[in-house]
Amino acid sequence: MQRSHEVPRPSPEASPPPNPPDPGGSPLPARGRAPEWVSVHVYGGKAALCFEADETRDGVATVALDAAAATGPQQYDWKNKLRLQLTRQELPTVLAVLCGFAPRAEFKNHGANKDKGFSVEHQGDKLFWRVFAREGGVRAVPMAPEDAFYTAGLFLRQLRKAAPWMGAGDLLALAQRVLTPPPRG
Fold first, then answer.
1. Which of 128, 104, 131 is nearest to 115 (CA)?
2. How confident is the model over 146-156, as pLDDT tens digits?
3. What are the DSSP E strand ranges found in the chain?
4. How far is CA 150 from CA 4, 6, 41, 156, 160, in A?
5. Could you tell me the pTM of the whole model?
């Protein structure tokens, strides 16, 4: 499996001044100064995923998820990708799975015809992603912890844009408290 990579587009402004860290412990650049387009790719043997910073029609920060089938070794059919946009309710739940606070998440009813969806699940030493559509089949990709790190970073970035009053540490603590399943007893 190839490693993922995060590809920010350079800002049109030249070296903006640094911002002080937020109470959550990491700096959040002023609006317009951070790279606006950030993506993380994860490559598997049968498919690849692209997580991309996105906005809803209402201007709320979110993540778009593309899944492309493999056409050969390290070759993927991005022209016929499955694409969906995570809802604001899905972002913190998926972050909780990426960070190990929750074991799995599955969401359906995406797309104009409500025929797309995705799931992510912990499988011991890796996460396993499935993106599916009624007409497009299933694209499944294992995700190594190193890939989950950068993907979680992108989700955290988008959540901070959607809730700028909360620091990164606050968002992680809240995701852990609210989205961790209670112990069975």
1. 131
2. 999 999 999 99
3. 39-43, 47-55, 61-72, 75-76, 82-85, 104-110, 116-122, 127-133, 137-143
4. 8, 7, 9, 10, 15
5. 0.79
